[in-house]
Design brief:
By secondary structure, the protein is α/β, with parallel strands linked by helices. The protein is 22% helix and 24% strand. Strands 1, 2, 3, 4, 5 and 6 form a six-stranded mixed β-sheet that branches.
């Protein structure tokens, strides 16, 4: 199983569409066997799902994520675990143990607020966009 985490400074990054790196974990029999950091190369919202598909990710763990990205992930067959915060390694270990705290209804709808708003303006920095 391959698990990708939107990643920054050891933590789950809180805005999928702006992530600059993913930490990608390969797991077998419920244990991490390899982990590496992959650059997103400034791909942006739409292309990130394609990048994860190219990496053959089965799962994405992230903070906030918009509806368009969610649709693209679903179309690529990538399971989403959004609304996650904290240490990336701990999140993956919790996922593998079946105890990851995530928000199945996570939404990052700040794109509808107009110019000048950033994800952190409305709570994404504290565990994902949920309004």
């Amino acid at each position: 199983m391959r698990i990708a985490v939107a990643y920054e400074k050891e933590e789950v990054f809180q805005h999928f569409g702006h992530t600059e790196q993913f930490k990608v974990y390969d797991a077998e029999e419920g244990k991490i066997v390899e982990a590496r950091i992959i650059s997103a190369n400034g791909q942006g919202h739409g292309a990130l799902a394609g990048l994860l598909s190219t990496l053959k990710a089965d799962v994405l763990i992230c903070g906030g994520i918009g509806g368009g990205a969610q649709t693209a992930l679903q179309a690529a067959g990538i399971q989403l675990y959004g609304g996650v915060s904290g240490n990336a390694d701990e999140a993956v270990n919790a996922f593998l143990a079946g105890r990851l705290d995530f928000d199945p209804n996570v939404r990052c709808s700040h794109h509808d607020h107009g110019a000048g708003n950033t994800c952190g303006d409305h709570g994404c920095a504290n565990g994902g966009c949920r309004h």
